[in-house]
Amino acid sequence: PYDLSPAFIQELFVKHKIDYIIHGDDPCLLPDGSDAYAHAKRLGRFRMIKRTEGVSTTDIVGRMLTCMRLNPFISLDQPHPLAKCFSAGEDDDDAGLARASEGPDEEGRANSTRTTLSKFLPTSRRLVQFSNGRLAPEGARVVYIDGAFDVFHPGHVKILKAAKACGDFLLVGIHTDEDVSERRGPHLPIMNLHERALSVLACKYVDEVVIGSPTVLRDDLITTFNISLVVRGTVSETGYHNDPEVRASSS
């Protein structure tokens, strides 16, 4: 609920074992003008984080709902009804809403194969804010791993931590939206290339990222970044392809 009552907050803390309630630094007011998180703040169980301009959790949830259409990763007979409230790939909001409400086409596919809700515009300053600024020292063992890293989660952190332990400097390749969509299907990835890059950069084990890295590692990339070791997950992602020879990262 938007109105976090004392009873609901207590349920979060006791039943779900939540330590803190977190929200961005924008005001969250109820219709009567009171703070929705006032009770959590009085208990000392509220933490505020600075919002990243142009990135909206509401948009991200909308993309998740939109991608709940027929594709190789998510197979539901009917999309979630809330998915109709979000764009299905149109730039114009009204046109996007209208098109999303039409549902899948005659063959069960979504009207659009890409989710383009994001209004996030990356800048050099934004990238610097997320980067640790470290450079690979002379003679460093540079480790490389690549993948989609969509909707950054604990599994990503685990594999990046393991990869970093294999060397001195961790370089992460982020695949393009087109490459990810080709193997995962319509409305994926949920987060666009630059959003995914910032998510990975924010991980303390990552030293640098390649934005829009190729899915096939070639000698020129290894030479350019002086890569000493390439690591990958235990499962290779074939996604949208039926061809067993087509391979991609498992991230």
What does the secondary structure layout of this molecule look like, with pairings?
Layout: H1 6-14, E1 21-24, H2 38-42, E2 46-49, H3 57-66, H4 93-101, H5 124-130, E3 142-147, H6 154-164, E4 169-175, H7 177-184, H8 193-201, E5 208-213, H9 219-224, E6 227-230
Parallel strand pairs: 1-2, 3-4, 3-6, 4-5
Brief characterization of the structure:
The protein is α/β, with parallel strands linked by helices. The chain is built from nine helices and six strands; from the N terminus they run αβαβαααβαβααβαβ. Helices cover 29% and strands 12% of the residues.
How would you characterize this protein structure?
With 251 residues, the protein is an alpha/beta fold. Helix content is 29%, strand content 12%. It has helices at residues 6-14, 38-42, 57-66, 93-101, 124-130, 154-164, 177-184, 193-201, 219-224; strands spanning 21-24, 46-49, 142-147, 169-175, 208-213, 227-230. It has a 4-stranded parallel sheet. It starts with 5 loop residues before the first helix and ends in a 21-residue tail after the last strand.
Strand content: 5-15%
C-alpha Rg, in Å? 21 Å
Q: Order of strands across the widest beta sheet?
A: 5-4-3-6
Q: What is the typical, i.e. mean, pLDDT?
A: 75
Helix content: 25-40%
